[in-house]
Amino acid sequence: MTTAHTPRSEFLNGARDTLPMVVGAIPFGIIFGVVASAPTQGGLSIMATLAMSLFVFAGSSQFIGAQLFGTGAPVLVIVLTTFVVNLRHALYSITLGPHVKHLSQRWLLPLAFWLTDETFAVVVNRYNQADDSPHKHWYQLGSSVLMYTNWFACTLVGVAVGSALPDARALGLDFAMVVTFIGIVVGNLKTRPLVLAAVVAGAVALLTNTFDHKLGLLVAALAGVAAGVWAESVTAPALAVQDAVSEAQS
Amino acid sequence: MSGIETLVIGGMALVTFMIRYPLLALVGRWTMPPLVARALKYIPVAVLTAIIAPATLYPSTPALQWPYLLAAAAAALTMWRTHNLLLTIGVGMGVLFAAQLGVRALGG
Question: What ipTM does this complex have?
Answer without folding.
Answer: 0.90
